[in-house]
TrEMBL record:
SUPFAM superfamilies: NAD kinase/diacylglycerol kinase-like. Keywords: Kinase, Transferase. PROSITE patterns: DAGK. Its EC number is 2.7.1.107. InterPro entries: ATP-NAD_kinase_N, Diacylglycerol_kinase_cat_dom, Lipid_Phosphate_FormReg, NAD/diacylglycerol_kinase_sf. Coiled coil: none annotated. It comes from the Bacteria. This is Diacylglycerol kinase.
């Protein structure tokens, strides 16, 4: 097995000591040869893998977080479907495309590492490297659904409103040289929520499930679309918006219809993962909407609002189309359970 390892030497979480811990388990895999390449700038990982097939490498292993995974997926797969017609074509050809592309593996070295954790690996790099080595040894792979938005792919989540506001503010915090710690996320999220209470986004949602069921919402202040479950921005606390969601079905949508008053406070705590027991969920049920296995989602705002995909701020927009593509990519995973 010939493997391309992609690392980010400029990341504060990656250094020579980390590589000394994670490389030996991979080198011990029978028949594995490895080539390492280092990114030099944002978007470099995407450029590195563009056009690669299994004739070049059997696998690509990302050493990084969800942003690095997102870059590699977008580079490997190329443009994503933009509308319903393209989605149907992409769904039909995805298994063939996945078979021709290198299999994706991940060793977590980011702040949240949602993608790799959702696949069943540890969030700790050294332990995840040992787990991945065992998976490589037995060639355990699975194909997963991916989300698409306006020609680009996402693996974890996307949305307008509160989460995008938090990520945009965190980008500014990191630009000032501060680490993206869970407590900083909490502080920024609290300020974003307080601001949103006075001038909340007004998001119109039109969604269709694979079963044909439809959803219509007008003017909701929070809308999150997730491709897996659970996920989080706040350390290791799980953020469960759609309990039945997984990499084996369409997108899970979670909307809050109001964010003011007691319901808004409890809803905020639920969103950041402070409800692991599910006890608070009963208080927000009347002000939340869950919709599972969505094949296509149209999101429209009357004025520009921030949008995020896979934890990366993507600017302000008034309209976004989300689609779900089955079996879009093959990944290494401890099991194929959905």
């Amino acid at each position: 097995m010939h493997v391309l390892l992609i690392c980010n030497p400029n990341s504060t979480s990656q250094d020579a000591a980390l590589y000394r811990r994670i490389l030996p388990p991979l080198r011990a895999v029978d028949g594995l040869t490895m080539e390492a390449r280092f990114t030099q700038r944002p978007g470099h990982a995407k450029d590195m893998v563009r056009g690669l097939t299994r004739e070049d490498f059997d696998a690509i292993i990302a050493v990084g977080g969800d942003g690095t995974v997102n870059e590699i997926i977008n580079g490997m797969l190329g443009p994503a479907p933009r509308d319903a017609g393209e989605r149907v074509d992409a769904a039909a050809t995805a298994p063939t495309a996945a078979a021709a592309l290198p299999t994706l593996g991940v060793i977590p070295a980011g702040s949240a590492n949602v993608f790799v954790r959702a696949l069943g690996f540890s969030a700790r790099p050294e332990k995840a490297a040992h787990e991945l080595a065992a998976v490589l040894q037995r060639a355990a792979t699975r194909r997963i659904y991916l989300g698409a938005w306006d020609g680009q792919w996402f693996a974890v989540n996307a949305g307008f409103g509160l989460d995008a506001n938090v990520l945009a503010k965190m980008e500014k915090v990191r630009e000032r040289g501060f680490a993206a710690t869970p407590w900083r996320y909490l502080a920024v999220a609290g300020r974003a929520w307080a601001k949103a209470r006075w001038r909340p986004p007004q998001i119109d949602v039109r969604a269709t499930a694979r079963s044909g069921e439809t959803l219509r919402l007008d003017g909701v202040p929070v809308l999150l679309a997730s491709n897996t479950n659970p996920w989080t921005f706040f350390g290791s606390l799980p953020m469960v918006t759609n309990p039945r969601n997984s990499f084996c079905q369409g997108l899970g949508l979670f909307a809050m219809t109001r964010i003011n008053g007691f319901t808004g406070i409890v809803g905020m705590l639920h969103l950041i993962g402070a409800d692991s027991s599910g006890w608070l969920r009963r208080f927000v049920r009347a002000a939340t909407v869950e919709f599972d296995d969505a094949a296509q989602v149209e999101l429209v705002c009357p004025r520009p609002h921030r949008f995020q995909a896979d934890g990366e701020y993507e600017g302000k927009r008034t309209r976004v189309t989300l689609t779900s593509v089955p079996d879009a990519i093959e990944v290494f995973a401890p099991s194929d359970d959905c």
